[in-house]
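thread from #wetlab-drylab

HS: before we spend reagent money on co-crystallization trials with flavin mononucleotide, can we at least see a predicted complex? here's what I'd submit
DV: go for it
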Amino acid sequence: MKVILGIGGGIAAYKAAELARALVEREMTVQVVMTRAAREFVRPLTFAALTGRKVITGMFDPDGAIEHIRLAQESDVLVVAPATANLLAKFAHGLADDFLSTLYLAFTGPVALAPAMNSNMWLHPATQANLETLRARGHHILDPEDGPLACGMTGPGRLADPLRIATFIQALAERRRDMEGETVLVTAGPTQEPLDPVRFISNRSSGKMGYALAEAAAARGARVILISGPVRLAAPPGVTLVRVRTASQMRAAVMEHFEQAGIIVKAAAVADYHLASVPAMKIKKTAARISLELDPTPDILAEVGRKKGSRLLIGFAAETENLVQEARRKLESKNCDMVVANLVGQEGTGFESDRNEVVLVLKTGEMVPLPAASKREIAGRIFDHALRLRLALAQ
Ligand SMILES: Cc1cc2nc3c(=O)[nH]c(=O)nc-3n(C[C@H](O)[C@H](O)[C@H](O)COP(=O)(O)O)c2cc1C
């Protein structure tokens, strides 16, 4: 597997070293191409040492080799990280005034661009228009994350996590694109139900399982709509993120988007109860006991189950006891095709953890235990079984 790693001249150029290393660790051959500006930030020697290959820095080879054409023909993926505002503009408009931009025009394989820049540069209409053009061309834009930036601002612009980029590139390079043309809707995270303007009830869901599912589907070529409650996670590369807070907002977002999807995965831990009329003022502290009357929230899974038609519906059951029995009950009562049964309340798996151990309960009557593994690994297995199940149900 041969990957071209193009590096633009941004502060995040140093993070490309971590990406180069992660790609090499995934047994890919990595050819680094640096722009002139990139070399102002990091020396080519760093990348030559990490990849074991001479870094390409200039257009004109003294031997007259037409390197950009040869390299374009023999490589599987082109990833540019960081992709500067300048590079996005050059790629969008077809400029070819250095090695990387010329190579881009000669390259016919999958292209992934991981932009990183100051928030104003990112949000500038010129940059956004260039991104539109590049997306329309079928390139994978690995959106930057929100957070504090080197320029002192806080906002969108930080390079996506290099390890995530590496995982995405690996999937691209392996062309494991078996979900291409598919639209997947994933819900993730908890919901927050307000009690007054400053307080809420919520649960311990971290959103990690849902985000891993969204990431896995996107890496396999699916268009992914991720509807997320409040969590501290960055949107996985290539995913459309819809943020919500309450169960009723989650319901509205799911109802708005689910018809576009062929596979719906409801991994969110939606609150079961809420305060129907939230006081406008903060509840004052007194010595007296208070009680809150909670009403049930809308049952989103059941509603989708009623309206889903031929869509594949995957629910989650987080239980502290009678796991499989509860999952079966949910499968039938909510008209799901698969329920991912998740024993919570154990150390090391379930909520907040990076790992999970689940049992898949399928509409065909099968029960598939998945041994403890990373949530990413589990996410991949869930989609393997979902695709297989859909074929079985269609017969
Ligand atoms: C200190 C410094 C940091 C910069 N950081 C970025 C950045 O993060 N993203 C970006 O798009 N441009 C950044 N620039 C501007 C680019 O270096 C400049 O647009 C350059 O022409 C990009 O060249 P290239 O796209 O060929 O690499 C930075 C410039 C300086 C001096």
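DV: The mean pLDDT is 92.
HS: ok that's useful, forwarding to the group
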